[in-house]
Design a protein that fits this description.
Elements lengths: L7 H11 L3 E6 L4 E4 L1 H7 L10 H5 L3 E4 L11 H6 L7 E6 L5 E13 L2 E10 L1 H49 L5 H25 L6 E4 L1 H12 L7 E7 L6 E4 H17 L5 E9 L14 E8 L29 H11 L3 E7 L3 E9 L9
Parallel strand pairs: 8-10
Antiparallel strand pairs: 1-2, 1-6, 3-4, 4-5, 5-6, 7-9, 10-11, 11-13, 12-13
Helix pairs in contact: 5-6, 7-8, 8-9
Length: about 375
């Protein structure tokens, strides 16, 4: 039945042509039978390319996920959807034939209508949003770095004092003909500590693309606690409960460190007096069996404090950019939004559990090396 004098098929095509998303239809024979103008422009193809096989067109592009891992043809959203798999939308980096790159959010949805079966693919150009998010992440990283620098300055001064005192002692012993091996060993040890401290700060501060690697999350927790040690006041008790044989994850170490540092610094801010900071890891998700997640399971990291807690009416807002409960000048409100973005880039999820007056816990679930995603 015509709508406003327009046949349904023509109306549907006009809608697809005028929306801001790239839309394409791939039939069960893997032929691209439709692509709107936005799609043609985004992927740099011509109207004459419609009708070609999806595999032939797909070979023109290199696609990577948010961790820099290449997505092969068989693992593409369209092919997975054609094979009957439920495909969640995902953020991908596309290398175009002209040498440029674009960030897109892609989803693929099976359909069967009017005798045509196949997959509807929808892609949104998110290049500007991704670049803005990365700029925000770097801004927040630099803010955190400033907080770290204040605490680490004390440790660095202690290292310099060790070097200076032992250098004087070595010179004195040398003039007296005594052995100065011991003070030189102390100098060497202190110098290595200083170099390691500087290297960690430089790694945390610099902007770089994601470099996923096999990580043991327990090691990341221990390394971050060592870096943040100068920030722990005597009135703060720090406890860890790390699962001994925790499965590995594939993640960017620097980004995982940033997540932990942000959450720990927030926890310390929430406990201006006495309190307890507890970091826990475990396989699986709280309340579920360790292997309950699809395709291999997950690991969980919990960062909990005994601070003031978050009011119930604000808990839904804490991951919003620029939202903060801290006094003016004490924060940009970017920390938790950055944490959430990093967790989601690693195909994980984050939740908050808080009781005003009793403390807050952030629960992060990440897929193990064998599991590509945490089901939403």
């Amino acid at each position: 039945m015509p709508v406003f004098g327009i046949q349904p098929a023509e109306l549907l095509q006009q809608i697809f042509e005028n929306i801001g998303a790239a839309v394409a239809v791939v039939d069960t024979r893997q032929r691209v039978v439709f692509a709107n103008r936005t799609g043609l422009k985004l992927f740099g193809i011509k109207a004459s390319d419609i009708g070609r096989s999806f595999q032939e067109l797909r070979q023109m592009y290199r696609l990577e996920n948010s961790l820099g891992q290449e997505i092969g043809f068989a693992d593409s959203a369209v092919i997975r959807a054609l094979n009957g798999e439920r495909v969640e939308s995902e953020e991908l980096l596309v290398y175009l034939p002209n040498g440029t790159t674009r960030w897109i959010n892609v989803g693929a949805y099976p359909f069967s209508v009017a005798g045509l079966e196949g997959v509807l693919a929808i892609a949104m150009d998110q290049t500007t949003e991704v670049q803005l998010r990365r700029s925000v992440s770097q801004l927040q990283r630099l803010e955190t770095l400033g907080t770290l620098a204040v605490g680490l300055a004390h440790d660095f001064n202690n290292i310099l004092d060790t070097i200076s005192l032992n250098a004087e002692l070595a010179l004195q012993r040398a003039s007296e003909g005594q052995s100065y091996r011991s003070p030189l060993e102390q100098i060497s040890t202190a110098t290595k500590k200083a170099a390691d401290l500087v290297q960690r700060l430089m790694r945390f501060s610099r902007t770089q693309g994601p470099h996923p690697q096999m990580l043991q999350l327990n090691n990341v927790v221990q390394d971050v606690l060592q870096v943040l040690h100068p920030l722990f006041r005597k009135t703060i008790s720090v406890r860890t409960d790390l699962w001994e044989h925790l499965p590995t994850i594939k993640a960017d170490r620097s980004q995982m460190e940033q997540v932990l540092i942000n959450l720990i610094v927030n926890a310390l801010d929430a406990m201006p007096g006495r309190g307890e900071l507890k970091l826990s890891t475990m396989p699986g998700e709280p309340g579920k069996s360790p292997d309950s997640a699809p395709d291999g399971g997950s690991v969980t990291l919990i960062v909990a404090d005994t601070g003031a807690g978050i009011p119930a009416n604000l808990q839904s807002l804490i991951f919003e950019p620029f939202f903060t409960t801290k006094p003016a000048g004490k924060g940009t409100g970017l920390g938790l939004s950055t944490v959430q973005a990093i967790v989601e880039q690693h195909r994980g999820r984050i939740a908050v559990r808080s009781t005003p007056g009793a403390g807050t816990a952030f629960i992060i679930s990440l897929p193990t090396n064998e599991s590509p995603a945490i089901a939403a």
